[in-house]
Write a structure and sequence with these properties.
Elements: E1 3-6, H1 16-20, E2 26-29, E3 32-35, H2 46-50, E4 56-58
Antiparallel strand pairs: 1-4, 2-3
Length: 70
């Protein structure tokens, strides 16, 4: 299902996931980062790689198939 969870106990709300996500899955509101569009996640793992607090859980299954010719 792509990005599934932000572990709030680890998240520092630095916004790196928001900044690096090419699909705009994350949103920021009042200084808090949250998963707004999990179905748009393409499982690139950039958010998980860039997170300094290891607060994100990304699975390898996409919510939607990516249409060809990508």
């Amino acid at each position: 299902m792509g990005v599934e969870q932000i572990r709030k106990e680890r998240c520092t709300n630095c916004g790196r996931c928001y900044d690096v996500c090419p699909m705009d899955v994350f949103q920021k509101l009042a200084g808090q980062v949250f998963i707004a569009y999990p179905e748009d996640c393409m499982c690139c793992y950039l958010c998980e790689i860039e997170c300094p607090a290891d607060a994100l859980l990304v699975t390898g299954k996409r919510a939607r198939e990516i249409p060809f010719p990508y």
